[in-house]
Design goal:
It is built from six helices and seven strands. By secondary structure, it is mainly alpha-helical.
Length: 186
């Protein structure tokens, strides 16, 4: 009855529920015998969909929640260069302080005033980005990989009958992911 009312509501407003890709469900119980459902979704106006015909609704990683991340993507759009992100824990990493000292002292710019400072900061940014790429303990990459592993196990959990073993693996992986989140947070 409630689902019929909800479906009627969607239809009356002319909303569009795009099909999910890379998954069937957006939520699952964390019980021994799982219940899986598609609870989460984007409901879009037809006018919006007509302006962005390459929209996709994609299931992302569940991570620590019992809900999957739902992404609304537009294919073939160049949003420009990826913004620079700085993580505070980098300041505690081996080699970071030396990198800053070396890079700051290395740049000898003859311009006066704010242009000189701007060039030094720009040089620092590029050096930090390169240092981060070369760093073996790339926590963000580890988190992304762990989230992918959890998602792969979640997919198996939804389709297989060896639920207990798969569930135990998911619990262990989520504990490891929590540790990685804590490391990245510092």
């Amino acid at each position: 009855m409630a689902m019929d009312c909800f479906s009627e509501f969607i239809e009356n407003l002319g909303l569009i529920d795009l099909p999910l890709i890379e998954g069937k469900f957006t939520w699952s119980s964390n019980r021994t015998t799982p219940t899986c459902s598609r609870l989460d979704r984007f409901l879009l106006a037809a006018e919006f969909v007509s302006k962005f015909p390459n929209l996709r609704q994609k299931v992302g990683p569940k991570s620590l929640s019992d809900h999957n991340l739902i992404l609304l993507e537009v294919e073939e759009v160049n949003w420009g260069p990826k913004p620079f992100k700085f993580f505070n824990y980098w300041m505690e990493e081996d080699g970071y302080s030396q990198l800053i000292e070396d890079q700051w002292g290395k740049l000898q710019v003859t311009m006066a005033g704010s242009n000189n400072l701007w060039k030094k900061f720009r040089s620092l940014k590029e050096a930090i980005k390169e240092w981060h790429k070369l760093k073996e303990n790339n926590e963000s990459a580890k988190i992304t990989e762990m989230e992918k592993e959890i998602q792969d196990f979640e997919d198996m959990y939804e389709s297989e009958r060896d639920w207990q073993n798969t569930r135990n693996t998911i619990v262990t992986k989520k504990e490891e992911l929590w540790v990685l989140y804590r490391v990245e947070e510092r």
